[in-house]
Amino acid sequence: MKLTKMHGLGNDFVFFTDEAGATKDYTELAQRLCHRQTGIGADGLIVVVPSEVADTRMRIINADGSEAEMCGNGIRCFAKYVYERGLVAKETFTIETLAGIMEPTLHINNGKVEQVTVNMGKPHFAAKDIPMKADVPMVKHFPVEVAGQTYEVSSVLLGVPHTEVFVEDVTKVPLTTLGPALERHPLFPQGTNVNFVEVVDATHIKVRTWERGAGATLACGTGCCSSVVMAHENGFTGRDVDVAVYLGTLHIRYAEDGTVFMTGPAAEVFETELAI
């Protein structure tokens, strides 16, 4: 099997194409290939499969074997992968995901995709849509008790469920303990991604993410998008915001009509062939 390692600002994935992969169970394969000591090492496995409703379809399997609805960094890598291999010839096209149809636009230099802008759709704010065991139309300043301490959180569904905790300094957050505690909190029946957000000013924020099913990641595209949405809804920022993660910056635009646009890089690391 020919495999490709790619990353979007450090959020890394193993890619391959499977014409018969629409309904396959990739749980064991994802766990094996994504293992950082005994496999290739990645946050997730991404499979290109045919679509009946879009130009192509993306399946993403987290490192723990669970299937995710969407991935912002992953979909930028996906767009680069299918274009540069001739699987899709258009510079703006559609991708089927479990979160709906996404539409990337490629920024190309000398035949290579350097940046990708993705229409990420519109956020859903009601607790029942996230889903979250609360009866509120928008989750803002919501008290959640974890390990004897109460945190005010904001939550939103943007492809996948995300919860934001606004902090003074993201470098001081106990990411590997507080992240999983919030991810698996009983309030979230399907779990939640957790973003710790430091507001620098009205056009800049910093984000650190504990990703549902993958753990601590260097970047999370949907997490950066949801962080901008909730930073704006809380009155902290405007609608055009640069989001700093460990290895670079994503630009997020939260349009007046509620549509979220994400622009950022995608990079290929290497190709290999393995007997699976």
User: What name does CATH use for the topology of the largest domain?
Assistant: Diaminopimelate Epimerase, Chain A, domain 1
Element pattern in H and E: EEHEEEHEEEEEEHEEEHEEEE
The domain tally reads: 2
Task: Give the biggest beta sheet.
Answer: 18 strands, mixed
Strand content: 35-45%
Low-confidence stretches: none
Shape: globular
- Ends apart, CA distance between termini: 7 Å
The overall average pLDDT, rounded, is: 96
Name of the CATH architecture of the largest domain = Roll
CATH class annotation of the largest domain = Alpha Beta
Radius of gyration: 18 Å
Work out the number of β strands: 18
CATH superfamily of the largest domain: Diaminopimelate Epimerase, Chain A, domain 1
Total helices: the number is 4
**What oligomeric state do the depicted chains represent?**
single chain
Structural class: alpha+beta
Helix percentage: 10-25%
Family: Belongs to the diaminopimelate epimerase family.
Pathway: Amino-acid biosynthesis; L-lysine biosynthesis via DAP pathway; DL-2,6-diaminopimelate from LL-2,6-diaminopimelate: step 1/1
Subcellular location: Cytoplasm
Protein name: Diaminopimelate epimerase
Task: Tell me briefly what this model is.
The protein is of the alpha+beta class and 276 residues long.
Fill in the keyword field for this structure.
about 280 residues; alpha+beta; Diaminopimelate Epimerase, Chain A, domain 1; 2 domains; about 15% helix; globular; amino-acid biosynthesis
